[in-house]
Write a structure and sequence with these properties.
This protein is an alpha/beta fold. It is built from eight helices and seven strands. Strands 3-2-1-4-5-6-7 form a seven-stranded parallel sheet, with helices on both faces. The longest helix is centred in the middle third of the chain and has 29 residues. It is globular. Helix content is about 50%, strand content about 15%.
Amino acid sequence: MLKGKTAIVTGSTSGIGLGIARALGGAGTHLMLNGFGEAAQIEALRAGFVKEFGVKVAYNGADMSKPDQIHAMVRAAVEELGSVDILVNNAGIQHTAPVESFPPDRWDAVIAINLSSAFHATQAALPGMKTRNWGRIVNIASTHGLIASVEKSAYVAAKHGVLGLTKTVALEMARTGITCNAICPGWVLTPLVQKQIDARAEREGIAVEQAKRDLLAEKQPSGEFATPEQIGALCVFLCSEAAAQIRGAAMPVDGGWLAQ
């Protein structure tokens, strides 16, 4: 349904971003991938997308903490793929510590990559979208954009900020064909979350599988992780004509976490 459109998905070499990129590729969208990884692995991923989905796929290694690199990535997508019709701001990092001992450099990094990068990418992509009077901006927020957890001050602050940015962009674009919405995943089993599970297992001296169960039992009533594929499917829907009047929304995919 999105055949011929072009999307940038930040942080799309693994985890949720990869699931979103695969879903958009499956819907016929040309792609600009972004993220870290070994050059050979990234090229294999890019070539695999081309073969599987029959779309044009480029890669840009922009550092999401660097505004000039973000703007350059958007320009590169226009030059290599023709336009930026869809922007998915997904790149993110995590650091956990109590507020009084939270390293300032880690605070700055989390805010830069999880929040400021979405602003810079949106600012760079909007002019072209306005010229065509069509665009979809999807920000990957979190349940932590709506509630908080201990020892995650930077992440929670950043994700709350992402929802504020989402609403502002949606309002500024309300009379155009450009929408801006956010997806708020709960626990999704990604490499980032796996690191948290492994750390918990080591800290508490329990098996990794038990750490998974305990993690889900605390927050997610379904007792199951959401999947990158489910997040990707919702992203495709938000980019469709059916979602043209969904604007400024924060859509949970959280196994009932926020219903409690």
